[in-house]
Amino acid sequence: MGIPLVQVDAFTAEPFKGNPAAVCVLPHDAPEAWMQAVAAEMNLAETVFVLRRDAHDFDIRWFTPTVEVPLCGHATLAAAHALWERGDVPAEQRIRFHSQSGVLEADHEDGWVRLDFPALPVTACAMPKAQAEGFGVPASPAWRNEHGTYLIELAGEADVRALQPDFSHLRRLAPPQCIVTARSDDPQFHFVSRFFAPGHGIDEDPVTGSAHCSLGPYWAERLGGNELVGRQLSTRGGVVKVRTLGDRVDLLGQAVTVMRGELLTPAG
């Protein structure tokens, strides 16, 4: 019997929008090398692996095509959506995920999935000149969170849309991850962003939940409200509601399943 594999588009209610993630529901623990090989085969921004601990608790790990990452919002949303939809967990039941970044929770709120994530506030810094030139952003002022991800605010939404990083140059530098953001021109949204992670095998991520763990606190301080709506300006696009709650943030998004199948290669 194969291992269930579900592909979910996260932070969207429309198929082929938002950020796709492959969700692998493991029957037992699997070798890291096997999980990384599956993620490379899926070739999505993230493939997420979940392993049941008990009725509503699961271990969770996230892999890009090239590396394991410590936190991922869209793939956690995809995993929760898949577990509820498959009937692994009753739809009204909260799910607890145990991860490298602590316990993360998922439940429903007004037709959206709510994720309870750690806040990742940023501190002022300067980005190395060569990397700033590669991303096409000013080296200073810049901000950085505890995961080493830079955040750069540009003058306006048009500047965020127009950005064209030199990824071939950046890959030679082993670049950090970079969030670029600005206030939104559209009154439906408070801010816009894009997210780049060429060092992790993802030139531009379509919609990035973990980036909003920094964007939420950043814009809450500047806009004077802790409940904000962000729009990520990738080609696929997506919407993240973010609520800043001290050292935690709520990320709210929608999701839609686009594919179901089985992995035929045993997990170790």
Mean pLDDT rating:
96
CATH topology of the largest domain: Diaminopimelate Epimerase, Chain A, domain 1
What is the molecular shape? globular
Distance from N terminus to C terminus (CA atoms, Å) equals 14 Å
Number of helices: 6
The CATH superfamily title of the largest domain:
Diaminopimelate Epimerase, Chain A, domain 1
**In the residues, how many domains can be counted?**
2
Task: Provide a quick synopsis of the model.
With 268 residues, this protein is of the alpha+beta class. 21% of the residues lie in helices and 40% in strands.
Which helices and strands appear, and what pairs or packs with what?
Layout: E1 3-10, E2 19-26, H1 32-42, E3 46-52, E4 57-63, E5 68-69, H2 73-86, E6 95-99, E7 102-109, E8 112-118, E9 123-125, H3 129-135, E10 142-144, E11 150-153, H4 157-162, H5 167-171, E12 178-183, E13 191-197, E14 202-205, H6 212-223, E15 227-232, E16 238-245, E17 248-253, E18 255-263
Parallel strand pairs: 2-3, 4-6, 11-12, 13-15
Antiparallel strand pairs: 1-2, 1-18, 3-4, 4-5, 6-7, 7-8, 8-17, 9-10, 10-11, 12-13, 13-14, 15-16, 16-17
